[in-house]
Amino acid sequence: MTHLKRLNIVLAAIAASWLLTTEVRAQGNFPPEDFNAVAMVNDNLSSGAGRVEIRVNRWSANAERDRLVKSLVDKGPDELLEQLIAYLKEKGLSRIALPVSPFLEKLGVPAALRSAGFDVHRWDEMKPDELYDGFDAAVTDVTYAVAETGSLVINASPEHGRALTLVPMYHVAILEPKNFLPDLVDLFARMGTERPGTVVMITGPSKTADIEMTVVTGVHGPNVVQAFILK
Q1: pLDDT at 50 over 60
Q2: 36-71 per-residue burial string, b: 16 or more CB within 10 A, e: under 16
Q3: For the chain: N or C, fewer Cβ within 10 A?
Q4: Pair type for strands 215-217 and 207-209
Q5: What distances in angstroms separate CA 169 from CA 71, 99, 219, one per listed residue?
Q6: The pLDDT of residue 107 is above 70
Q7: Alpha helical stretches, state H, the chain
């Protein structure tokens, strides 16, 4: 099979998936046992806090399936910082990389980590190669979280290098309600408008398998992905 034929098959599959998802969302014709389809229609019928809760719950179910660990934060930034510091200490992580993030600055993450004794370096204070030199974890914000697939989406930029979420063995992501999108259709619509240069999509920890299908995590990226969700 030529490369062109393979490409045509892949594009046809993507197009079929997009059309099916759009049809389900528009008409609500779905098998009753299909959790994703039910959630998709409920998302369209709900609004405000109810819609966000549906997306968070759906994202959580799909993320856990792919071994992405999540924690809900009910009481705001103070509780978040307590949970974050406790988690990093429990895992024995001391050298932390951060993006240049107004969101993390607003939450007080860099200052809190430094006050707790962590060795914190921001992306604009390092060279990409330095990530290979003993950084235990990256703590980042995200651009989106896709409920349909349980994925994290990060638009890489000069302030948020893509290596941050690909090199350290631990990736800790901090999410807020506005990050959650129902499905890939919405994500692609946003990307078509925003036109980011490079996008990192993370669905659980890095996984690979040999010919005997023995799955190993952490070979080509983080071994652990932990998400803290601000409610």
Answers
A1: yes
A2: bbbbbbbbeeeeeeebbebbbebbbebbeeebbebe
A3: N
A4: antiparallel
A5: 19, 16, 9
A6: yes
A7: 3-27, 35-45, 48-65, 77-90, 102-107, 109-115, 184-194
Asked whether 72 and 231 are in contact (CB, 8 A), the reply is yes
H or E stretch covering 137 = strand 137-141
Q: What is the mean pLDDT of residues 191-213?
A: 77
Domains, the chain, in order of start with CATH, read: 31-230 (3.40.50.10420)
Q: What is the pTM of this model?
A: 0.77
Tell me how far apart the alpha carbons of residues 229 and 173 are, in angstroms, rounded to a whole number: 8
Structure tokens at 195: 């036109």
- Cα distance from N-terminal residue to C-terminal residue, the chain: 49
How far, in Å, are 96, 111, 119, 229 from residue 122 at the CA level? Answer: 9, 12, 10, 22
Classify residue 5 by its DSSP letter: H
